[in-house]
């Protein structure tokens, strides 16, 4: 089993506590609905877009394209295309439309230039599942998801936000990446006021996993570390165990550094895309290199390989 190096967590937390971290701008209209839009429309936008926020690139085919002269890749391109559709055809995001969506529609929506999603069949199935269950389980009212949880992520009766979201296939990840990402967006937009903030966790994706392994706050046992270093694909169980360990390591890190987990996630996600890159990390620009295990050992481990998932 992976283990969390608490001593290294503490060391890194003292440095991170001094960083000026800015939350993302949830009102940037390039990617998100403008302020003042109807709450239900905004809620449905984020329910749909976070459901689609997984595994857009493959090693031999990056998800990148130019829109209005700006090169976008990965999640940036995804959410830009989301806003294009939201502006052009807001009905696309209604539960009724989602319940009937076709693969061809998803492919047409999320394709531009040479970029296209690698799994349009799965994405269409996830959207249909989302639409059908909102119609059948919540009487077509997506705001029930928020009303029923009462602001709690977890409740003993099983009706906390994180509990409820598991009913949707897109949000069924045991490590709750998409659920926590959605909670973050809704919290930033003022649609979800979280009461039990001690239950907030960072939404763990490939960037956050790579950083945790390189910093050394999560240590893999040798046979698993060897597999990761060699780029061998891990199985379902190993993927869950690794990401859960990463999530808990960041829980401790946020607590020691007195950081909001959502703000920490914003920092880590940007850091993983701009500095702690997968193949060529820019260590000379990194203010954390002196306490980074990868920089110290010159063993720049990447995140584990696990492609075929809609969890993250």
From TrEMBL:
InterPro entries: DNA_glycosylase, Endonuclease3_FeS-loop_motif, Endouclease-III_FeS-bd_BS, HhH_base_excis_C
SUPFAM superfamilies referenced in this protein's UniProt entry, alphabetically: DNA-glycosylase
Keywords noted in UniProt: DNA damage, DNA repair, Glycosidase, Hydrolase, Iron, Iron-sulfur, Metal-binding
Record GO terms (molecular function): 4 iron, 4 sulfur cluster binding; catalytic activity, acting on DNA; hydrolase activity, acting on glycosyl bonds; metal ion binding
Required co-factors: [4Fe-4S] cluster
GO biological process, any: DNA repair
Annotated Gene3D superfamilies: Helix-hairpin-Helix base-excision DNA repair enzymes (C-terminal)
Secretion signal span: none
Family recorded in the similarity comment: Belongs to the Nth/MutY family.
Protein name in UniProt: Iron-sulfur cluster loop
UniProt organism field: Ignisphaera aggregans
């Amino acid at each position: 089993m992976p283990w969390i190096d608490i001593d290294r967590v503490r060391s890194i937390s003292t440095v991170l506590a001094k960083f000026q971290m800015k939350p993302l701008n949830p009102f940037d209209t390039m990617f998100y609905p403008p302020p003042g839009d109807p709450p239900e429309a905004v809620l449905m936008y984020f329910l749909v877009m976070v459901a689609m926020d997984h595994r857009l690139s493959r090693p031999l085919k990056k998800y990148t394209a130019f829109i209005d002269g700006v090169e976008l890749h990965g999640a940036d391109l995804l959410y830009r295309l989301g806003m294009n559709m939201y502006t052009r055809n807001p009905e696309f995001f209604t539960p009724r439309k989602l319940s009937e969506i076709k693969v061809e529609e998803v492919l047409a929506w999320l394709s531009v230039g040479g970029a296209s999603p690698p799994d349009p069949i799965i994405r269409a199935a996830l959207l249909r599942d989302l639409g059908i269950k909102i119609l059948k389980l919540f009487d077509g009212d997506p705001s029930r998801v928020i009303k029923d949880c009462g602001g709690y992520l977890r409740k003993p009766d099983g009706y906390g936000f994180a509990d409820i979201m598991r009913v949707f296939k897109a949000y069924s990840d045991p490590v709750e990446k998409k659920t926590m990402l959605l909670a973050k967006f809704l919290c930033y937009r003022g649609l979800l006021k979280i009461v039990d903030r001690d239950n907030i966790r960072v939404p763990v994706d490939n960037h956050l996993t790579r950083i945790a392994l390189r910093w050394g706050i999560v240590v893999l046992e040798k046979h698993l570390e060897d597999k990761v270093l060699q780029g061998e694909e891990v199985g379902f169980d190993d993927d869950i165990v690794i990401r859960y360990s990463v999530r808990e390591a960041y829980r401790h890190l946020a607590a020691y550094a007195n950081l909001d987990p959502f703000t920490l996630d914003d920092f880590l996600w940007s850091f993983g895309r701009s500095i702690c890159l997968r193949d060529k990390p820019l260590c000379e620009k990194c203010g954390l290199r002196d306490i980074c295990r990868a920089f110290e050992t010159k063993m720049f481990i990447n995140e584990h390989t696990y492609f075929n998932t809609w969890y993250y």
